[in-house]
Structure formats: structure tokens, C-alpha cells
Amino acid sequence: MRRAGVAIGLALALAGCGPAPEIPAHPALWRVADGDTTIWLFGSIHALPPRVAWQTPAVAGAIAAADTLILEVPPADDGAARAQFLALAEQPGLPPLLERVAADDRGVLARGMAVAGQSPETLDGLKTWAAALTIGAGAGHIADADAANGVEAVLTRAFAGKAIGALESRDGQLRMFDRLPPESQRTLLIAAARDALSAAKGDAALLTAWTAGDAAGLAADVAPLRRDPAMGAALVTDRNARWASAIVRRLARPGRVFVAVGAGHLVGPESVVSMLQARGLKVERVE
């Protein structure tokens, strides 16, 4: 963990002093197998800064050996994904976003929107959960994180010409947020605003944990979601259970499958890995 933190600090210190050095990474990789099926489980980060060298020999070998890639949602171009998001996210006649939260939270929300580069006029027409996701996406760019550098984008290119599947649909993923109770959506919104205000520090901590393969650090990143029972169930625990069941079903068919999902879904209590182990499967960490 200390080695990863030093590498990240060095990269930031040298910004603007010529080409940035690569950030060495050793993210966690697990394997579950039976006689004729091997499934690798890789914890991803959806958006990364450039030049993070995460394809270790173990990870690169698994990618090369796999005949199928499975992601959380199917790949889509930015335009199509944005259109699908807006179709569910926009709703006429909503109260202004600042009026949807408690008076004590309005200052944090206003500052978070500003830091993320979002104006109230832009977000007022969005449902609360959608505004939260938009603030989160805007804040990601503060730390130079970009989905184009993210694990899923790199894997999609690497598996060109091979089978690519998904554990859930993009529409289904968005509807999980849309079904959250109003109070949970407000909690998500304020959390996104607070995260935006400390984006550089928070993203650095997440990246440090991920590059070091630090399971405890990654689990800590997901922990705030679990504090809201409805949000923790909908966005983490219930999804993990569905994904674990899908992996068990996939083991019944021969093949070599590389599964990449958000890193927080594979660590800690009630993770996909722990749920598979609870079913009696041997899940071996190989990186």
C-alpha cells in the first residue's frame, strides 16, 4: 500500500514536468474453477487517470486466456449511453435541486455542484439520483479520471472479436437508482456533493487501495453506501447476490470467462467473493 501511495504521489508531483510516469498497479484478481470452466473475477475502477499500468502478468494472462468477457452492463458508445440516461433521468416540474434537501445541506450541495462544474439550471430538471450521478461524474474529472482510461473501456478493446456479455442491462442499472426511496436519493445527492469537495483526496485514496490490491481499503470505499439500508441493499448486496448466482450458473458450462465488476463488489462482507465461498466454492486470489 505504501509503495502504491508513493508512486501516485510521484506522478502528481511530476505533472507538468514532461511525460507523466506510469503508475504501477497490482489490483486484485480471483479465480474460481471446476473441471472444464475457469472464471476470473477482477475488481475494476470505471474511470482512471492515464498511464495506470494495471495489466500485471497474472491479469494479462487471464485476459489472453479468456474466451468471454462479462461486464456489469453491455458496452455502449457515449451518445447512446447519455440518451438512455436522460430518458429516465429527466422529469419536468421538479422542485429546484437545492430545495429538495434540508436547509443545512444546501451550502454543501451548492459548493459541490460548483466544484463538479455543474450549474443548478443544468441539474434542476433531473431526478435527484440522476443529479447525484452527474455531480459524481463531473467530480471525477478533477482527478483526471476518465472512463476512456477505465478498466471496462480497455477490456472491451482487448476482447474485440470475442464474446462480450453483461450481468445486467444498462436500463436495469439506471432503474435501480430510480427506484430508491426519496430519502435515499437525497442521501446519495449530498454524499456526491461532499465527495466532489474532496474529490482529489478521495480519488487518490481509492486509487491507492486499488493499485495495491488492498481489499480492506476498497471495502471502506463501499461502506458509506451500506449506511443507508435501502441504498446498500439495492446498489450493493442484492446485486452481489444476483451476480454470484449468475457466476454459479456460468460454471455449469465449459469455457474461460473474465468477469470485471466494480472493485467494491468483490471485497468485504456480503461481497460476490464471500457469497461464492458461502456456497462452498473455492475462490482463489491469484493477484
Can you tell me about this structure?
With 287 residues, the protein is of the alpha/beta class. The protein has one domain (2-285). It is 52% helix and 13% strand. The chain contains 13 helices and eight strands. It has helices at 2-13, 57-65, 78-89, 106-115, 120-123, 128-140, 151-158, 170-178, 182-197, 199-211, 215-226, 229-251, 272-278; strands at 23-24, 29-33, 37-44, 52-53, 68-71, 163-166, 255-262, 283-285. It is globular and about 60 Å long. Mean pLDDT is 90; it is low at 1-18.
Query: What gross morphology would you assign?
Result: globular
Low-confidence stretches: 1-18
Distance between the termini: 14 Å
The largest β sheet comes out as:
6 strands, mixed
Tell me the series of helices and strands, N- to C-terminal: HEEEEHEHHHHHEHHHHHEHE
Radius of gyration: 19 Å
Structural class: alpha/beta
* Strand residue percentage: 5-15%
Helix content: 40-55%
Please give the count of helices.
13
Number of E-state strands: 8
Q: Report the average pLDDT across residues.
A: 90
Biggest sheet strand order reads 6-5-7-3-2-8
